[in-house]
Fold:
Amino acid sequence: MVVRRSAGGWLSMSTDGPLRGLTVFDIGRFVAGPVSATILGEFGARVIKFEKPGHGDELRHLGPAIHTDASAWWALEGRNKETVSLDLGHEAGQAAFRSMVAHADVVVENFRPGTLERWGLDFETLSSVNPRLILLRTSGYGQFGPYRLLPGLNTAGEALGGLRYIVGYPDRPPSRPGVAIADYTAALTGAIGVLMALYERDARQGSGRGQWIDNTLYEAVMRIMEWTFVAYDQHGTIRERVGAESAGTVPARAYLSKDKHWVGIAAASDKLFGQLAAAIGQPGLATDDRFLTNAARVAHRSKLDEILERWAAEHEAEEIVSLLQARGVPVNLVYSVAEIFKDPHVAERSSLVPVPGEDGKPIMMQAVVPRLSRTPGLAQWAGRHQGSDTATVFSEWLDAETIETLSRAGVISG
Structure:
């Protein structure tokens, strides 16, 4: 269901989603792999989440807890997933998975390279059961190369990809971005890879054959590093930390208002800078040689920041926003999560939606993006308890005797 706010309250609109009819097996852990599966599930794919009996996916236990085996993080990224317990480290669990994979379109995993091979769940084996299968393999460093067997979580991806080096202040150690950029960027590239593989398999004169996808955290980070690598190749430029600034665009940072609110202001083009100069009552800045072009503004960023900091300190935040918006300058208040919840634009667009939790009570969380006009995404339920769907799902694809045997051996639970 897609939930939208109206003047009279919350309205729901049912939709099957553009990926309806596809089945995804999510055997990943933590963030990067599983979030790729979450994205597919948000757009209508049926996602079966496989977890080892007992502890389950580590994401259940990271971040503020909602209930015994669900963190706020799991509530979000476990949404729309049916949860089953199966020990893939056990031979019987591996055999069961191989038989069930005949019913899957996609398998998503993010174990260290070599793990699936040890379990007899490598692409060659799985595709012999299901030649149409697409296998998304996300890892820190990839399926080949000298680092392939090294452990690689978010921090490692941001470090090797170059992001950590440029985040922070020049006189301080590299800083961590506020969220897991490597994990989430790789989740997006992984989902894109799956969609391209599905298109190649099924669309027009599709091959009808599956393939596997080598998706890495560090390369996903490299891809969002803007001009960093090209500038080094062409000019030997090493991008350094510049604190709260943008390395290549000035101004593009937050300034503190008279009433102590941070306001984000950006004027990337010369035209926008001229509009900013007029908005703050100093149109001459736009013709000042020090600020005439973006390159000049970058070279003289300290002086320009001094001028803008002084101006911002003399005006209240709402006035700053009003003055700059009137001149067409991109500007907004820097929001905390509490302020986002109260924002009228966020409310009008239902950017936060209520999704039923395990107890039926709504949990507010981010809406599905992007918004498709005819087949928008789905936010049906929040992350479920571990093994909630084991009996239902396995009864579709395994006979009763096999299920009983696996249960007695502790290979499945729930």
